[in-house]
Amino acid sequence: MRTTVGIIGAGPAGLLLARLLHNAGIDSVVLESRDRAYVERRQRAGILEQGTVDVLREAGAGERMDREGLRHDGIELRFARRRHRVDFPALTGGRSVMVYAQTEVCKDLIALQLKEGGPLLFETEALAVEGADTQRPRVRFRREGVEDVLECDYVVGCDGYWGVARSAVPNGRTFERTYPFGWLGILADVAPSHDELVYARHDRGFALLSMRSPSVSRLYLQVPADTDADSWSDERIWDELERRFETDDEWSLRRGPITQKSVTPMRSYVHEPMRHGRLFLAGDAAHIVPPTGAKGLNLAVGDVVTFARALTHRTATGSEDLLDAYSATCLRRVWQAERFSYDMTTLLHTAPGATPFEDRLQLARLDRITSSRAAETDLAEAYTGFPIG
I want to staple 33 with a disulfide (CB 3.0 to 4.6 A). Which of 71, 125, 283, 337 is the partner? Predict the structure, then answer.
């Protein structure tokens, strides 16, 4: 099998890259180890930055997003029983974010790829990337029990931290931080208790009120990293959420049937460089952020847009300048997102063993954001998205 770009992984990064290349007249093959049903149901991110929304629209993948997604023009910060709304358009010149789940993005892109794009091979396990430092890299894979080879001009690894692409980059340098807490996340069949996301800092720990639709709520509680989700009863979860979202006004939390619960670990991770020869890393294969900043999916989109632009430029001009700059270009954006995600995490979470001094510093930082337009603007600009490329 032969193609121009071999894409490992059919998450949002790999699928969007295939779409961008198709629109540019460049052929690709996507290899995905899981079946289609798994890809279309795995719960991940749900906040799309303004730039991601724009890219999906330009790629022809925004119709259902615009119809069913929920545009949000701000978030609410909640601390010391106080509420403060951050108005994104007023602070950023009109930018906003969209609540539209990763599962739905994948469904839209899969449908387009199967209808118009190149091969999208589910249940196809990538075994190794070979010859990345040659003009003809290849991906060895197994499909229906039979091993085969995909020969390429370029390989893009969108296969996550545990995938084969990252391990094929020799002499890489990694930067990592593991946090001593995680998020207990739930899906509940109940209308959201607020029309925008609520980020709550509480002495008992962080809480986040989010949503998947007008009738489905997505909520999170900070818990110890080794927490078993099943050890928390539904009633205990709702009681704890109610405590952490408490305010001095009449706001109340709606309760409903919990349909899913899980614990998400919290990590910061960056792999440098993001390129070796003709192998390029994108998304979680190269970087992971704690979910507090809502950056994971959006960073992956930035990576594949940068690669698609660089390869389109090379096809049009013969110049490899943009391809050569891929890693450095992406990493500038990655490190800003890592910085913002770290800042949001340390701003809002209660660290085990935190001293009263550290608690007061958190409150002082929140007071600064809610009383200074400059500080509030910095948060709004970062949340709605850093420039791509």
Answer: 125
